[in-house]
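RECORD TYPE: protein structure
NAME: HTH lysR-type domain-containing protein
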Amino acid sequence: MDASLLPALEDVLLVARSGSVAEAARRLHKTPSAISQQVRRVEEHFGVALFERDGRGVRLSPAGEAALGAITRLFDQAEGVFELLSELAGEPSTTLRLAASDYLGKGLLVPVIRQMLEQRAPVRFAITTANSIDAARWVERGEVDLGLASASSAGGDLVKQPLFVQPFLWVGPRLTGKAPALRERLRHEPLLRLAPGSVGRRLLDAYLDRERIRPISTIDVSSVSLLVSYVSGGLGIGLAPALALTEVARSRLDVEVAEEVEPLPVELMMRENFRRNPIIERFIERLAAEGRRAEQRTRALLRA
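PREDICTED:
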């Protein structure tokens, strides 16, 4: 084995995960030309093309797709070696990389991380905001260790642990006097939509197509929290997961259960070979407990 190729393989892995030489360079604090040189070094050493051009970015070639899993496992094992050596040195430390949408991060991750930090658990957290579909894809690729996602997202080969079942709600600005139902107001007020590719956007588009509703105007927002903020400011009607509304002041909002939309389980996802040490096991146990509390909060919201 030529160990000098390991840094180049790390560059290959980041390009594969990001689909962009420039993005990989940004994350690794290198120049794009340096990244490209490392990729060429690996390709020339083995005589195989790992990437193909894809518009302004790159994508894995068939050979690259075949090699990605092995490269990912290589660096997963390397991370385990570093953790083991830290433990042997008497300074155990775990870095846990997480992906979750903003409202799941606030509703589930914040309480658990706060508990572990208050108890001085030797763990560092790296959190990336992502919708459910991206979170599943990043876990599959090994870009993060754990992901929180709605059950309808991708990730068929991942280990999944259910956390709670979540209904969806219609939410809009509160009107004075006797106001029509929010579903009726959809035809006459601006519609707030999440980004294409998210589970919430998929559910909303399916409902609009089924009911043949064409909104007078639409506003695309990047996150559930931003959607709720716009509604609180008096602008637009949207479809939101219940957990996002459990701690929001209701005085400015009209909220209705979206009975037309099937409730979705929220799951914790990880790769099958993910190394679960005692600290990570403790994190997962507390996250499961927080999921049960989240389900209680959403039920209370529906009864209100």
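COMMENT: Residues 62-88 form the longest helix (27 residues).
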